[in-house]
């Protein structure tokens, strides 16, 4: 029996090791192909490891297009959106969970409705709204149009529902304002949900592509995905400079994999919370 | 007294404004606007919109390209949502029984989900390269014929689907791992005492208990699949011959490439309708079959 269970365990290990290898292989392939020469990359059969790794390809790709600008844009926009969403989701969730008002049912209904409507469907009218507001081609447009998220509100609402209402009442008895109660009593209790909000929103917005490319035509405002894509199409000229394209993809992906490795516990715990928030 | 009562009633609304204002400006308002636009003909440039009633819808529903896009959308949704859920659950079941070092596997399988779709799609387009790409190298090594992948109308959608599954399957697995961990152990032990076999236990106990997770994953994956754009844009741009043009991609092309605002808006409303219908149907279906 114990031998059998050992074999079972071993075969499960082998299975998952093989699967993990396959799943991670595109990343390995990206890095090794980034190190090849243009001749070697077209060799058949392909080499698993480059004959002489050209580490300089990374620097060359980095300077071939304004990638530092693209990454900077992504970081600025994503960080601003995270901060605004933490603020407005906190306020909204507090009103929905610990305050009484007439429109509460209506507002909850509207937000729930927003959960079901595909955001991409309203890209065309949102584009027209942004152009009316004169916010096309601007950081403000990129940030404001993404500054509210139904997911974030749900996530924080779920966390606030766990906080006993007595804490709010005690605060009121002490004469604290709702703002004070929210930010000094409730938010610290729900900090793990805010951490999840920050990480998930940052990753989403850093990677965001479709909407930003619609509303910013100016190359100096492009986020990193759009910048990489135009390098792929123009600079890389579709397949003429594959090693450089792979190198550029690698340094686009690297910061996110790094964030993920550092904060994997928090990111994976988001699963717990999102699954929970869907029930509420 | 009256004043303070008024302020007391106003304060909660003030708290909702930082979220409700952008929500109204960039979501609710545009939704009504796109509904209005779908009854008009407009090309972005001319100052006048022409009211055409239901013409946009009538034209759309008699356009063969619409039905092709609908078919591609259905295939793409079924081809990504079902495998992601089934494989995700399968992997979670395999991993759920104590396995040392499974944290490493979890991290590796989950990692594609955090990476930018555009960047990984570019990597995959190199893997799909027909002459010496990795996919065809592996195929010919295994003794199969090489495929045209993204250049071939019969395989392009499969190529896009594979990338999409690769990206989300680890994510679904983590959801199921959490759900499986919450299945009470004493319930399983009781079933063991009753002599239930593993298949029976799975169908009668595990599956119903994790059904809220299945519902959640189904809806989220479905809405994501209906809105998939990045990988299609990088890998195929809807081609070849429209074989990867989903409804969303058709909407994008008619709005931002051919500037047929009326047609685009009617596609958008169709998408909204499909999304809401499917979400409602799955909620109704699950409220009959879900056990919390």
From TrEMBL, chain A:
<dbReference type="InterPro" id="IPR000515">
    <property type="entry name" value="MetI-like"/>
</dbReference>
<comment type="similarity">
    <text>Belongs to the binding-protein-dependent transport system permease family.</text>
</comment>
<feature type="domain" description="ABC transmembrane type-1">
    <location>
        <begin position="71"/>
        <end position="263"/>
    </location>
</feature>
<feature type="transmembrane region" description="Helical">
    <location>
        <begin position="106"/>
        <end position="127"/>
    </location>
</feature>
<protein>
    <submittedName>
        <fullName>Carbohydrate ABC transporter permease</fullName>
    </submittedName>
</protein>
<keyword id="KW-1133">Transmembrane helix</keyword>
<feature type="transmembrane region" description="Helical">
    <location>
        <begin position="75"/>
        <end position="94"/>
    </location>
</feature>
<feature type="transmembrane region" description="Helical">
    <location>
        <begin position="181"/>
        <end position="203"/>
    </location>
</feature>
<keyword id="KW-0813">Transport</keyword>
<dbReference type="Pfam" id="PF00528">
    <property type="entry name" value="BPD_transp_1"/>
</dbReference>
<keyword id="KW-1003">Cell membrane</keyword>
<feature type="transmembrane region" description="Helical">
    <location>
        <begin position="12"/>
        <end position="31"/>
    </location>
</feature>
<dbReference type="GO" id="GO:0005886">
    <property type="term" value="C:plasma membrane"/>
</dbReference>
<feature type="transmembrane region" description="Helical">
    <location>
        <begin position="242"/>
        <end position="263"/>
    </location>
</feature>
<dbReference type="GO" id="GO:0055085">
    <property type="term" value="P:transmembrane transport"/>
</dbReference>
<keyword id="KW-0472">Membrane</keyword>
<dbReference type="InterPro" id="IPR035906">
    <property type="entry name" value="MetI-like_sf"/>
</dbReference>
<feature type="transmembrane region" description="Helical">
    <location>
        <begin position="139"/>
        <end position="160"/>
    </location>
</feature>
<keyword id="KW-0812">Transmembrane</keyword>
């Amino acid at each position: 029996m114990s031998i059998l269970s050992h074999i079972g365990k071993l075969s499960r290990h082998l299975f998952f090791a093989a699967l993990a290898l396959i799943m991670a292989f595109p990343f390995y392939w990206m890095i090794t192909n980034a190190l090849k020469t243009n001749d070697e990359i077209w060799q058949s059969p392909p080499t698993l490891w480059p004959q002489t790794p050209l580490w300089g390809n990374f620097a060359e790709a980095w300077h071939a297009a304004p990638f530092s600008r693209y990454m900077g844009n992504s970081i600025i926009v994503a960080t601003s959106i995270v901060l605004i969403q933490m603020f407005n989701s906190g306020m909204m969730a507090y009103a929905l969970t610990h305050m009484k008002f007439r429109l509460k049912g209506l507002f909850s209904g509207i937000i729930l409705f927003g959960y079901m409507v595909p955001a991409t469907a309203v890209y065309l009218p949102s584009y027209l709204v942004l152009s009316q507001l004169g916010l096309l081609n601007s950081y403000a447009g990129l940030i404001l149009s993404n500054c509210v998220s139904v997911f974030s509100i749900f996530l924080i609402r779920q966390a606030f529902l766990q906080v006993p209402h007595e804490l709010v009442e005690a605060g009121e008895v002490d004469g604290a304002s709702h703002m004070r109660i929210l930010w000094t009593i409730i938010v610290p209790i729900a900090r793990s949900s805010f951490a999840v909000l920050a990480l998930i929103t940052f990753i989403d917005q850093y990677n965001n592509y479709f909407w930003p490319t619609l509303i910013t035509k100016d190359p100096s405002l492009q986020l990193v995905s759009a910048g990489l894509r135009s390098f792929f199409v123009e600079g890389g000229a579709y397949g003429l400079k594959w090693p450089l394209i792979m190198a550029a993809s690698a340094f686009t992906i690297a910061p996110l994999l790094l964030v993920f490795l550092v904060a994997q516990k928090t990111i994976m715990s988001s699963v717990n919370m999102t699954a929970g928030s869907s029930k509420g | 007294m009256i004043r303070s009562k008024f302020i007391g009633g106003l304060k909660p609304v003030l708290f909702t404004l930082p979220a409700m204002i952008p929500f109204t400006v960039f979501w609710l308002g545009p939704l009504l606007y796109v509904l209005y636009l779908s009854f008009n003909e407009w090309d972005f440039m001319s100052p006048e919109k022409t009211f055409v009633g239901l013409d946009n819808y009538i034209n759309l529903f008699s356009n063969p390209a619409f039905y092709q896009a609908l078919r591609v959308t259905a295939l793409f949704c079924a081809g990504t949502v079902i495998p992601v859920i089934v494989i995700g659950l399968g992997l979670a079941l395999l991993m759920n029984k104590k396995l040392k070092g499974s944290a490493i596997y979890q991290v590796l399988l989950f990692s594609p989900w955090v990476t930018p779709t555009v960047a990984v799609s570019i990597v995959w387009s190199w893997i799909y390269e027909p002459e010496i790409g990795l996919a065809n190298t592996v195929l010919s090594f295994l003794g199969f014929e090489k495929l045209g992948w993204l250049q071939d109308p019969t395989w392009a959608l499969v190529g896009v689907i594979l990338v999409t599954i690769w990206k989300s399957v680890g994510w679904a697995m983590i959801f199921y791992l959490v759900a499986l961990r919450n299945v009470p152990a004493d319930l399983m032990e009781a079933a063991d005492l009753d002599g239930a076999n593993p298949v029976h236990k799975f169908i009668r106990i595990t599956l119903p208990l994790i059904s809220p997770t299945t519902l959640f994953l189904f809806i989220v994956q479905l809405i994501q699949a209906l809105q998939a754009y990045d990988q299609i844009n990088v890998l195929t741009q809807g081609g070849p011959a429209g074989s990867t043009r989903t409804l969303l991609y058709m909407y994008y092309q008619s709005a931002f490439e051919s500037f047929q605002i009326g047609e685009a808006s009617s596609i958008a409303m169709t998408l909204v309708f499909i999304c809401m219908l499917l979400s409602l149907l799955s909620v109704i279906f699950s409220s009959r079959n879900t056990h919390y």
